[in-house]
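name: query_chain
kind: protein
chains: 1
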Amino acid sequence: MIGTSFLRVAAHDDDFGTNAAITYTMSGELPEYLRVNPLTGWVYVNQPISQTIKATSPLGDPRVTYNLEDGMVPETNMPVRFYLTPNREDGSASILVAEPLDYEVTRNFILRVRAQNVAAVPLAAFTTVYVNVTDLLLVAGGSQWGSSVFPD
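structure:
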């Protein structure tokens, strides 16, 4: 989501006063998916980014189904806050957010994804995706919120 902070870089200068001031910048690569706050070092999303999960089979069968397992507690997608959408062109799937996430309610999620091929005797693989929601941060020029995703 645009404006999502997910990483804070930090540098230190042993000088004093204005000589110790650090300004953060990023390389000018295009498209500019990420930006950094020049004063705080928080890196945030500047343009929409999609993350895909792709499963492939050594047998070459592209028919793979994906399931995001339901959980029993809020931290495991109960009630449903995340869902999968398949991409049939390349056999991948994307994890999407069904509703806004609230740090005050649930600070992290552990999602379990199952990929299974379509066959007479199906084979399945699992992965765990960790989603950490960060608290509202007051940053120079406004406020930002964010989350981070870590695959297992």
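note: The chain has two domains: 1-49, 50-152.
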